[in-house]
Each structure stands twice: as structure tokens, then as C-alpha cells.
Amino acid sequence: MSYFLCWNSKVALKVVNSVTSMGAANTNRFWSRYMSGRAKKLVHQYEYDLIVLGGGSGGLACAKEAVVNGAKVACLDYVIPTPIGTKWGIGGTCVNVGCIPKKLMHQAALLGESIHEAESYGWEIPDSQKIKPDWGKLVQSVQNHIKSVNWVTRVDLRDKNVEYVNGLGSFVDPHTISAKLKNGSERLLTGQNIVIAVGGRPRYPEIPGADLGITSDDLFSLDHAPGKTLVVGAGYIGLECAGFLNGLGYDATVMVRSIVLRGFDQQMANIVADAMVERGIKFLHKTIPKVVCRNGNGRYLVKYYNTETDVESSDEFDTVLWAIGRKGLVNELNLSNVNVETKADKIIVNNAEETNVPNIYAVGDIIHGRPELTPVAIHAGRLLARRIFAGSTQIMDYTDVATTVFSPLEYACVGMAEEDAIRQHGEDNIEVFHGFYKPTEFFVPQKSVRYCYLKAVALRSDDQKVLGLHYIGPVAGEVIQGFAAAVKSGLTMKILLNTVGIHPTTAEEFTRLSITKRSGLDPTPATCCS
Ligand code: FAD
Ligand code: NAP
What we know:
alpha/beta; FAD/NAD(P)-binding domain; 4 domains; seven-stranded mixed beta sheet; five-stranded parallel beta sheet; 24 strands; binds flavin-adenine dinucleotide
């Protein structure tokens, strides 16, 4: 028997044992049936059933799920250092320079607020006005956590029999990957299937002095306090970073080229920005940077101009943070060797994450036109592995993906923005239920409730199917996550308003949405329980 069995050795042994106990005719019939059922798992000329390029959220999920389903898998991961030399370990953007350090710094900022609130609840805090964070200690704690996750990830890969290769992968041909290793040597690996999950990295603007700025790739390990910071870009990253920097006591300014949070419901986006202004964050609207130069005092002079008024201005900052979007890491892949189609630094895939080359797939931030979010990459990676190795036909559903902007007063949503619903269904066919609300815990410390607002965008037809839910307030992600399942299950306003709330929470406000925008009634409640 000359077949080379490449799945899990225990399975192989069982199969070989049972085959050798059969007669010759049966044996042939067995193999032909086994081969057709397991076609993807029997390879003749490749070392691996699957090579994954990229050990981030999507790549790791795909690699581990493939092993669970019997595949022999190698996962390459390599981090090209930032222009100022920052680098990190396995796990990709989310763990090292994304969701995780961001959430920890957001939490650090919220805790600062809580210390002051605690006084109004009776805590005696000596010299509370002098309390300030120690940036060095914060960075150390955040980095310690990241290092522990890197370590657990490596152990997990070893335990699950995913071969981790710390090398920069590129295509030699559709089944051969070259891994450039840290010591400069090259290793060639061959695989039946290749999954590209290389994610993206921050963009730098094409202006003089751009290299004097840093990006989110550097911020979470910055070895000095950022001080007065200009954040260029008003997407997720811009608002979140400006939010926690301000919360930690640093002067923060957000430069907005066009609108805040493009792609999000614009009424909600503007409330998020207003809530940030109330906390002391400055916004330079309709403004783009022109040049950055280093001043004699070690600070950075940024010249910028307003595209509406054409007025040029300048200011000095300690740190300039570019948060102007991310580019897919396609350049390093030598895609010309395999002719995989790309569009704007991203890989084009169909709804099964298949590229135009039959054995090459892509998941996560590197694919074109999909949300750049960790759970999206993970879910898509897992489902892909099941389709390749377990005969599954389930494809990734990219609709109604819930998300949260961790601005100081958080914003979470699922489904359609009001303007998108109107564009798609017509204004007359959309009903928007909305309301301001007052979180109970805000009363004692007299925190501003001005921007605590939520709305449900629904069809106006009989059952009033919910198309989108939007919430600004504390723990927004925790509030919206469960409602996301309801929206995916076809939630209607009737069901929502017939749901009994949990009191006193802010999530229960969704069950009390009685005022429509169309009615023109005041959506401001008199008390917390009205
Ligand atoms: P990545 O996680 O980027 O992993 C790709 C890996 O491949 C990297 O390690 C990369 O170095 C490596 N690589 C690249 N090229 C090669 C190559 N040729 N060979 C080998 N390895 C290679 N998402 C959320 O859901 N919630 C959040 O709160 C959130 N916050 C974020 C905050 C910030 C500041 C940022 C930047 C992102 C945030 N995201 C958040 C987005 C989230 O991090 C990404 O969507 C997610 O990490 C994408 O996973 P991925 O597997 O596609 O790519
Ligand atoms: P983004 O959401 O695409 O926002 C980029 C911002 O930069 C926009 O405001 C854009 O303005 C502006 N911009 C672009 N080019 C510019 C230029 N040359 N000069 C000045 N401004 C410019 O990108 P991001 O904030 O970097 O985030 C990247 C992705 O990471 C997001 O799409 C998101 O999926 C993911 N992420 C998720 C979370 C989360 O889940 N909480 C957090 C962070 C990141 P215009 O609107 O004018 O184009």
C-alpha cells in the first residue's frame, strides 16, 4: 500500500489495521470508497494538508480547527518591525497591538474616572486630586499580560500539534511556501491547501515628516508618556486612542478629515464625538495634516489646513499618532507567482473565502470588503477549516455583526444605520424608536447623562422587524452582544417591547423604547424609571 496518509496518526493506524484484516477485493473497495470520501485528507506529494500564513486571530483559529479535523498543519507568523523598531510575538494584531492592549488602556482610563466617582459614594481617598497614572507601570502591566498570552498561544499550538514557523511566508508556487526565518535562512514548505491570514498594518500619510509620527503598533509599548497628542483619523482607532489618552490625563486632539466614524450611523457618531468633547478632547474638523517637523525643544510642530476654509494653522505636540486606516499585507506574499487576485491591498475571495486559485483561501482583515474585526476573522477561519477538512457546507454570514467603539462613553451597534435603512427601504417604511436614558449609577457622582442615548431602527410594516440597534452608554459591548443574537433571529419591535427588562440596568432601556422619531415627542425621560 503506497498511499501516504497525512492525517492524525491514530486515525491512520486504525485504518491500516482494519484494512489489513480484510480480503483483497474488500480492501480495494474500501480504499476507493475511503479515498473518495476523504479526498482532501490524502495527499501524495505535500508535507502539509494546510499551511496558514499568519498567526493572528483568523489564522490561528483556522489552523487549530483544521488539526481537530485531522489535518497536518503548519502556521507561519512573522512581524515586520515598525519604523521605530517595535515588534511583538505570536497572536497577531488583536493580542499584541489591537483589541487587548486597547481594552486594557480603556479600562485604565475608566478606572481613573471611577476613583473620583468613588469619593461621592463615600470612599475616603487621600489627596484624590493628585492621583495620576504612571504610564511606565501601565505599559509594563499591559505588556506582561500580552507576553503571557503569547506564551499560552505557543503552548496551545504545540499541544494541538500545529507546527509554528516563525518566518515570513511568500508563494513560490500554489503549493510551495518560502519561509524567511529570523536567522536569514529560507525554508520551503509544501501544502495541499494554503490559507492567507496575514492581516494588515497601519498606514502612514504621504506628507513630509510622516516618519516622525507613531501608530497604534507603537503606542501600547511606548517607553515614555505620550504627553500632548495629536491623533490623525476619526475611525475606531482614532477615537478609542484619543479617548483613553484623555482619560489618562493627556491632552488629546482628534483631526477629522471628513466625518467621524465613517460607515456608522451618523447621528450616533456625532453623539460619540460630542460626548468626547464634553470630556475635554479637542476636534479639528475638516482638517488634514500638511507637514510634521521636529522642533528644537524635542516636540513636533504640525502644520495642517482646513479643507473648508482653506485656512492653514499649526500646533506643537509631544506625540503624533497616525490612525488613518490599515493596509493589507499583500506585498510580501509574492502573489505574482500564483496570480491571486487583489483589490486595494486586499485579497478578493468569494463567499466561501476562496481566491481565484483553487487551493488558496483567505480570511480575516486581508480579505476585501469585509469587517476588520477579531471575531469575524476567528469565525470565518474556523468555518473554512471545517469546510476544507470536515465536509461542512456552512459559510460565514457577514451580516449583522455587532461591534463596539470603546470611546470613553462606549457605542455599540448591530445591524443597519438609520440612514442605510432609509436608503434601502425608503423613509416612509422605516420607524425609529429612540430615547435618552439615565443610568442609575450616574446619579450619585452626578455624571453627565446628556449623551446616554439609544435607538432601534425598524421596518414600519405590521411586525416591525428590527433592522438595527444602537446604544451609547456604559458597557455598550456587553449590552449589545445578546441583542445581536435576537436581531439575527428576526427580532421584531413587538417581541422587544414584550421582553421584560432587568432592573436597574441600562440594557433594559431597549425594552422601554416607546417614542418614535416620527411622533416628534421629547425622548428625554424625567427620571431613571419613567
Ligand atoms: P492579524 O491579527 O493582523 O494577524 C496576521 C498575522 O500575520 C500577524 O501576526 C502578522 O504579523 C502576520 N503576517 C503578516 N504577513 C505575514 C507573512 N507574509 N508571513 C507570516 N506571517 C505574516 N477588533 C475587534 O473585534 N475588537 C476590537 O476591540 C478591536 N480593536 C482593535 C484595536 C486596534 C488598535 C487595532 C489595530 C485593531 C483592532 N481590532 C479590533 C481589529 C482586530 O485586531 C483585527 O480585525 C484582527 O486582528 C484581524 O485578524 P487577522 O487574523 O485577520 O490578522
Ligand atoms: P478607519 O476606521 O478606516 O478610519 C480611518 C480614519 O482615518 C478615517 O477617519 C479617515 O477619514 C481617516 N483618514 C484616512 N486617510 C487619511 C489621511 N490621509 N489623512 C487624514 N485622515 C485620513 O481605520 P482605523 O480607525 O485605523 O481602524 C481600522 C480597522 O480596525 C477598522 O475598520 C476596524 O474594523 C478595526 N478596529 C476595530 C475596533 C473595535 O472593534 N473596537 C477598534 C479599532 C480598530 P475619512 O472618513 O475621511 O476617510
